[in-house]
Amino acid sequence: MGGDELLAFADAFDQTCASVAKYIEHLGLSHEDDILKNTRSTRTNALMRWLCWQMPYHTAHHVFPSVPFWKLRQLNAKIEAQAGPVHRMGWIEFQIEVIKRFAQKDESQWPMDEVWIVPTSAGRETRVEA
Questions:
Q1: Which tens digit of pLDDT belongs to each residue from 45-55?
Q2: Which helix or strand (DSSP H or E) is residue 98 part of?
Q3: How far is it, in rounded angstroms, from Cα 93 to Cα 43?
Q4: Which pLDDT does position 66 carry in this prediction?
Q5: Whether the model pTM is above 0.85
Q6: What is the pLDDT of residues 60-109, one digit of tens each?
Q7: Are 87 and 43 in contact (CB under 8 A)?
Q8: SS3 for 97?
Q9: Is the Cβ–Cβ distance between 52 and 21 less than 8 Å?
């Protein structure tokens, strides 16, 4: 495999990972201007967090987008200490829930103003404006 082919493969792999990650970060969450309701972090392993520049701490990234990627883990801990746990799901858990939900409803019934793909039904008291 030459340099051009390797670069093309790396770009295709990156774009595929980015596309998959975008769905878990926002699909099935509220469209309200509350970052804690409209953004989800991803449960994953250290290697994936490293490969994704710590973006699995996606809620922390949205709360303070100018924080460098290497500080997102600490920022996430501070957010959860004040606001409680952020929405977080594993990739496989998320995919299973999405398939179940999409099989149950047609698009006209998917709510825009509530969280509908979550592993728990815990509510929130703290709002963070988007």
A1: 999 888 888 98
A2: helix 91-104
A3: 10
A4: 95
A5: no
A6: 999 999 999 999 999 999 999 999 989 888 888 888 888 888 887 677 66
A7: no
A8: helix
A9: yes
pLDDT number for residue 119 = 58
Q: Where are the beta strands (DSSP E) in the chain?
A: 41-43, 88-90
What is d(CA 58, CA 26) in angstroms, rounded to the nearest whole number? 10
* Contact partners, residue 54, CB within 8 Å, separation at least 6: 69, 70, 72, 73
Greatest alpha-carbon span in the chain: 54
The first and second tokens of residue 105, run together, are: 């409803």
The pair of structure tokens assigned to 106 is: 């047609």
Tokens of 15: 């774009």
CA triplet 36, 20, 122: central angle to 5 degrees? 30
Using pLDDT thresholds of 50, 70 and 90, give the confidence band for residue 10.
confident
d(CA 27, CA 33): 15
